[in-house]
Amino acid sequence: MSDELLKLRNQIDHLDEEILARLAERAQCAQRIGVIKQGNLYRPEREAQVLRRLADANPGPLPDAAVQKVFREIMSACLALEQPLKVAYLGPAGTFSESASRKHFGSAPNFLPMGTIDDVFRAVEAGNVDYGVVPVENSTEGAVGGTLDLLLANPLKICGEVKLRIHQQLLSRAEGIGAAKRLYSHAQSLAQCHEWLNRNLASLPRVPVASNAEAARLAAEDPESCAIAGEAAAELYGLNVLAANIEDDPNNSTRFLVIARHDAGPSGQDKTSIVFSAPNRPGAMYTLLEPLARHGVDMTKLQSRPARGGLWEYVFYVDFVGHQNDPGVAGALRELNEQAAFVKVLGSYPVAAI
Length: 354
Description:
Layout: H1 3-37, H2 44-57, H3 64-80, E1 86-90, H4 96-105, E2 110-114, H5 117-125, E3 131-138, E4 142-143, H6 145-153, E5 157-165, E6 169-172, E7 182-186, H7 187-192, H8 194-200, E8 206-209, H9 212-221, E9 225-229, H10 231-237, E10 240-243, E11 253-260, E12 270-277, H11 284-294, E13 299-306, E14 314-321, H12 327-339, E15 342-350
Parallel strand pairs: 1-2, 1-3, 7-8, 7-9
Antiparallel strand pairs: 3-4, 3-11, 5-11, 6-9, 6-10, 12-14, 12-15, 13-14
């Protein structure tokens, strides 16, 4: 070992000890905050502010995403010193919903898989868990109608969002795809990989199942099969990745919502989601949306959904930039409430920071 290499390794050892001491000091501060607050320590707006500040202050050479991931885990571990959060997600284990949950909360919480999106809402509303994570839209397949319906019918609030790049992997126990006689996958993943499958596995029978994690489980039990699922499922079920990133759209991503019995305070970079119904008269939609433009509110999404109350009646889901406490947003909401037949604020929450 050269003198220079030995010197650098000693320097790294010293820095590691220094980092460890600072981590202990940070954890002690978090514990003191817990004593003062005597309640829920998790504040989504505060964590988003911390992660953004660290990205802005990052001198390199580590990329911003790597720095944020490290500090996401530090904050997660510090919160768990009091009592680990309970987070429900659309299961089973190994789904993209679990990956989104861990991306948002770190690895310290107790993650509980649920059978349906409705089960996630019920668990949060009943107080059996602190938070829930549910998919709301995919960049290629569109909105998740079940989530939108439950947001309308349920008193829970949106307190965060997670954006997850969806990379589909072809998995199997085998070393190659030549022996495969069937392919398991969720129907949505089959659609997202349609062109790749037609080019590479056109003759292989495709078997739709309830989730990608279930597809991976079946492939682990069936050596003459393969599955489409994510890397987490491959690791969970001990499968080989025969082909990586087989999705047709390289920008394929899914947006998830974090639901709770509370929403979030202003973080400085926020989004607000609402749902409303319009009276059945000419120009009604213009009248309802015009206050947003007049108050300088940037609308980022408008989604119509059939209302359950009557035939050919619709409700409209809108996302826009800003917190409901911001003056411009508050003014637009006041006018919207005066004009619309029905308005519900689903929540204000930080824009995804990671």
